[in-house]
Amino acid sequence: MPAPRQGSAAAILPQLAAFLGDRVTDAPAVRDHHGRGEDWFESTPPELVCTPASTAEVARIVSTCAAGGVPIVPWGAGTSVEGHVLALEGGVCIDLSRMNRVLAVSVGDLDCRVEAGVTRLQLEKKLGREGLFFPVDPGADATLGGMAATGASGTTTVRYGAMKENVLGLTVVLAGGGVIRTGGRARKSSSGYDLTRLFVGSEGTLGIITELQLRLQGIPEAISAAVCQYPDLHAAVDTAIAAIQVGIPLARVELLDENQMRASIAYSGLSGYQERPTLFFEFHGSAAGVEEQARAVREISDEHGGANFAWSRLPEERSRLWKARHDAYFAGLELAPGKKAITTDVCVPISKLADSILAAKADVEASGLTVTIVGHVGDGNFHLLILVDPGDPDEIARGKALNHRLVERALAIGGTCTGEHGIGYGKIGFMEAEHGDAVKTMWTIKRALDPDNILNPGKVLPSTRTGTPIPDR
Questions:
Q1: How far is CA 154 from CA 127, 377, 384, in A?
Q2: Are 158 and 376 in contact (CB under 8 A)?
Q3: Where are the beta strands (DSSP E) in 111-249?
Q4: Residue 285 sits in the same domain as residue 177
Q5: Comparing C-alpha atoms, which of 93, 64, 94, 91 is closest to residue 9?
Q6: The predicted structure's pLDDT at residue 196
Q7: Range of 29's domain?
Q8: The predicted structure's pLDDT at residue 260
Q9: Could you give the angle at the alpha carbon of 117 between the alpha carbons of 462 and 185, nearest 5°?
Q10: Do both 116 and 213 map to the same domain?
């Protein structure tokens, strides 16, 4: 048997096994599972998968990898959609799912501390017994560590903000195996550099998040949901923008175009609705407050041609609607079984949102592809779910071209190529167009914190170790 190459995971397997035992494996099925996310890229497995149970074990894995020059890819739940978990240079995957303890909850201070492997729904269940909730809801049952690493947001961002606004502090393992704690429990601080926000959204390229201090909210006295359907996309988007601009404190406002409604009606059983552009609303506050908010939104909706406005405070009705919204990705896939989805997530200034969505819709119709549109329209973020046959180069080329036009249009009006999914591997090609010379400063930070480029190489910034190609998406 040939000797393991320098920098390969095989060379450090005995050292890792000495303290992890059977929690390090090179089993092909396990490796393959950890070589893909919820994206359309081909699986790129790591050489080894480690499952630590503590920050100390993560630090020991990282120091061992650093000494051997072995790349590291952090793993949460595998729900990312931009190739974040692809092991582009092999190496070791660190699966943090075993680190799933809720360490502390302070009802009085409205905060909690969790390990990185705690999932969103696990925390929701724990907090609900205390009358609290964590407000960032990306839909998928992602881990909190993964949500922080990708800078996630979701349906409630319009009211409560994204991960950057809701993470107070972190425990992070650095590239050499050292451990630091950033931030704290104070509601604000002017002390030193804001390292917490540096690591939130860094996608595992600057350090590995192992614990999080999170800001919480009290469950509102009353919650209600509303649905309204519109004659066209412009009317639906204009309703959402007008509601935001007049100051109605919407907790959620989600857009589904007619194609997505067709998919969701079939997949989620949304009987009673038509295949028309639709807005889902949610209101939080006092009993009188949510009724007043719904009434104000209805007045705006009526002005824009909305029909069949219906609202309810019944928990089961809210759950049905939001489950359908969260299942939109899987519903969309059912429109073309066997195809994969190229997902987009541009974000634009809300005054430009209607024009951006309508221009995207025109491009969709010209492409001849099956595409649905959904959006967190309260904050200017919308998604195309572009269905392509992975074995059809022409469809893939048309899908990529559609995404390129979408991003170019967003950047031209001051938007971004990603409102919440992150860069990963899939959007590296847009970094210089969006950030210009600031990419050089990002490289300066990357080299300072990870001089050997072992932390998730080939993500966010192109790799210099092996020349990982920049994708043409």
A1: 19, 11, 15
A2: yes
A3: 111-115, 132-133, 167-173, 179-183, 208-215, 217-218, 222-229
A4: no
A5: 91
A6: 98
A7: 9-95
A8: 97
A9: 95
A10: yes
Total number of residues shown for the chain: 473
Let me know: does 73 contact 193? Beta carbons within 8 Å. no
Looking at residue 182, what is its pLDDT?
98
Paired tokens of 84: 């974040």
User: Same structural domain for residues 131 and 198?
Assistant: yes
Tell me which DSSP letter residue 218 carries.
E
Does the residue 466 lie in any domain?
A: no
State the Cα–Cα distance between residues 29 and 238, nearest whole angstrom. 49
> Is residue 468 one of the residues assigned to a domain?
no
Q: Residue 85: give its domain's CATH number.
A: 3.30.43.10
Tell me which residue has tokens 């969309």: 332
Q: Residues 4-14: pLDDT tens digits?
A: 444 789 999 99
The b/e string for 327-366 (b: 16+ C-beta within 10 A; e otherwise) is: bbbebbbebbeebbbbbbbbbbebebbbebbeebbebbee
- Do 381 and 375 touch, CB atoms closer than 8 A? yes
Within this chain, do residues 40 and 118 fall inside the same structural domain, yes or no? no
> Alpha-carbon distance 369 to 384, whole Å?
11
For residue 123, give the CATH number of its domain.
Answer: 3.30.465.10
Looking at the fold, whether 364 and 400 belong to one and the same domain comes out as: yes
Please report which residue ranges of 278-352 form alpha helices under DSSP H: 287-303, 315-326, 328-333
pLDDT of residue 463: 64
DSSP lists the bridge partners of residue 149 as: none
| String of DSSP letters for 82-105 | SSTT--TT--EEEE-TT---EEEE
Give the total number of structural domains in the chain. Answer: 4
Tokens of 188: 């604000």
Q: What is the pLDDT of residues 171-185, one digit of tens each?
A: 999 999 999 999 999
From first CA to last CA, the distance across the chain in angstroms is 40
Residue 146, token pair as written in the block: 């993964």
Round the average pLDDT of the chain to a whole number and report it: 93
Residue 305 and residue 355 in one domain: no
- In the chain, the largest separation of any two C-alpha atoms, in whole Å, equals 75
Residue 454 covered by a domain: no
Q: Is-contact 388 313, C-beta < 8 A?
A: no
Within-domain flag for 467: no
Q: What is the DSSP string of 14-48?
A: HHHHHHHGGGEE--HHHHHHTT--SSSSPP---SE
Q: Specify whether 14 is located in the same domain as 91.
A: yes
For the chain, how big is the Rg over CA atoms in Å? 22
Task: Enumerate the β-bridge partners of residue 24.
Answer: 50
DSSP SS3 for 412? helix
DSSP letter (8 states) at residue 221: S
Angle CA 97–334–87, to nearest 5: 35
